[in-house]
């Protein structure tokens, strides 16, 4: 058989997608070295992870940045950091994706300035700023400003790049975190498209882009999606995305060129489904999830980045990221996937699945638009409540065994894994000295600049923010003056204010009337009665800048279902705020959720605060991605319980919380 003449084969292989790994930690210099190693291994694009202070507009020496600097990404506090990050990497020839949202304008201005310093033509620079602020109110929590002001910043970036950086994707509509927060495929498509409509409406209504150029805007809008392990369903979801995007951009915005209406997306496959238990199973999960966005040629991702097998344990090492890169390379270069046209064209099964997702997503999109658009749906809490409820239902199915997770709720017998034999050595460790160096660095940067020039630049930024002027020119002036990330965001905070998004807990339920929950509810009632109080009170706290609140919200929902009165004030709290709430609300237990790796700084700060407030007796429990050795350290410091991703049974966790309260109060 002459395989090269096979009639179903393409005349030549498709070009593979852009291959990335999501990378950044410790410092700009360390991340630059990591970028160089990854590119040498065959990675074809960069995907920059920024640390939480950078993402939320704080400098390394801010109180809220304590314990967070360099942990989940690279700290970039000023132009000097951006120079170090891309030192020796020609930006004109490097496709760079930056996962940055609220301060996207600022980071793009830093990036473009470094490009110009390198002699690059900005019109040649290609890449993406994520810049989808809506999903931050719903899932990741790295928002700063109110929704309307945030959309204004996005529209300003779109208008600027259209003129100055036409190959740049100024916004990356991000449904990835919607799925992480609980969205079904139908909700993921519907809610993401509602966000895209809000962005395009904001650009159109800003008056900065002529109507005849909306097609040019549309063709630079990209999406960043999630792909779960149900890869057949994921293929249908991606094809449905394309159908609806083509329809919306043609009918709502009058884009007549079909090439401009093409659905363009990158993907990070699902991290939520990765398990701490039997983590070797994550390898096959990642491969199956990758198939969901590569198998269908007509709906294939333009760029792919894969998580590492040990992300449920901590920060991946370079070797772990290399393994994930090699998965992509084997699929692209060893398999025959890229040699064929779309494998699902004409499939009755796929057509029916796509139609089902399209129909459901249209309903969700129409519902959001009827509410007044995605901003109104955020401010009323509709979107957040829908996601919390969907995630609660997903957790219920896993706990009941209706959804099987191998190694977690079925087939749990296992051999010892050589991959995790090294314990904490199986993940990247961030040197605590990194934060001290960053703090010292930003203070020296401030001391070495012209204060009058800085003040003038910030004054212009505040003045322009109070009008409808595009803020990119003032931001670029701030970059050149030596303004820091925290100062830029602080100036806009003064004009726009800050925002606290709805928590979405109202009306959400989790365990229903399952027998286990009924028994726990009886224990809660009995314990409250023995303590002489009406109800047990639980404070759920999110210290520091970690905005991944899904776990905290699910604990809050299940605790409330069990009869607790739950105090939950949302994300991004100082230790002092958590302690004050615990004392003022007279709670029986404090539960802290930390997923950023800052637990060894954030948790002792709360314990110290409780002692200073005269409540050393108040029990504290902690949940998060916490290595075993760190868990021992926290327990030695006085933490009553430490929960990690392997503790998936929420009702069991709530039962344990009752036990902690009883023990703290000397009840049998």
Automatic annotation (TrEMBL):
Its cofactor is adenosylcob(III)alamin. The keyword Coiled coil does not apply. It comes from the Bacteria. Residues 535-668 form the B12-binding domain. Keywords: Cobalamin, Cobalt, Isomerase, Metal-binding. InterPro entries: Acid_CoA_mut_C, Cbl-dep_enz_cat, Cobalamin-bd, Cobalamin-bd_sf, MeMalonylCoA_mutase_a/b_cat, MMCoA_mutase_a_cat. GO terms for molecular function: cobalamin binding; metal ion binding; methylmalonyl-CoA mutase activity. PROSITE patterns: B12_BINDING. Heterodimer of an alpha and a beta chain. Belongs to the methylmalonyl-CoA mutase family. This is Protein meaA. It comes from Micromonospora arida.
